[in-house]
Amino acid sequence: MECVLMSTRILIAEDDTRLANLIKDYLTQQGYQVFWEANGSKVVAAVKNVNPDLIILDVMLPGRDGFELCRQLRPQYPGPILMFTARKHDVDQITGLSIGADDYVVKPVEPQVLVARIEALLRRFQPRDSMENSKALEFGRLKLNAKSRAARFADDEIKLTSHEFDLLWYLAQHAGDLVTRETIHFDVIGREYDGVDRTVDMRVSNIRKKMAEFTGRDDAIKTVWGRGYVFVADAWD
């Protein structure tokens, strides 16, 4: 188990008092500083007050549901959002990931598994050596800056989430090479690919849509069906 500093703050948005207390107690034992909000209508204010490093967001909340909250928080909150729900439908998981959630856990979940997922998400927000060693990448009119975590096409900023930038940077570092889903999951997502997780697919789709608004094309990141993706270096002129 990794050593976690008390400055690592987690906000739990969960209306089940018993479950919230169990999670809070366990995470506190692991060294996290934990805050709790049960009312969905108060979550946005709690995020502003607490400034958490990670949010555990239940889907079925009174006041405002988790999907609505995720949509509102994602443009302004740069940290990881972990959706938490008892609903097992694939469509719910796809919805959560497509609107900006970074992971999706179905109840019930073992506390050790939840902590592992939390640690994996937090690791992805730590500076990577590869980013430190190479501060910027440039392909035609596309410029990526690791220090400022900014993507620009010509004079326009492409507004990417932190996780979208991580993925784009990783693919750009391997420009022209096939990068498999297994490799992306291990190096970028922070967990092994289970064969069904669509997190990477959804993020690539989001990146393509945002890029297409500026480039007019959506083929600069090619899909190699059944294998992975290729960043096309000469597609950004």
From TrEMBL:
Q: Which residues form the Response regulatory domain?
A: 9-122
Taxonomic lineage is:
Bacteria, Pseudomonadati, Pseudomonadota, Gammaproteobacteria, Alteromonadales
Does Phosphoprotein appear among the keywords? yes
Can you name this protein?
DNA-binding response regulator
Kindly indicate which segments of the sequence are annotated as binding DNA.
134-233
One protein family per Pfam: Response_reg
- Domain of life, per the record? Bacteria
The molecular function GO annotations come to: phosphorelay response regulator activity; transcription cis-regulatory region binding
How is this protein annotated for GO cellular component? cytosol; protein-DNA complex
Q: Where is the OmpR/PhoB-type domain?
A: 134-233
Gene source species: Aliidiomarina haloalkalitolerans
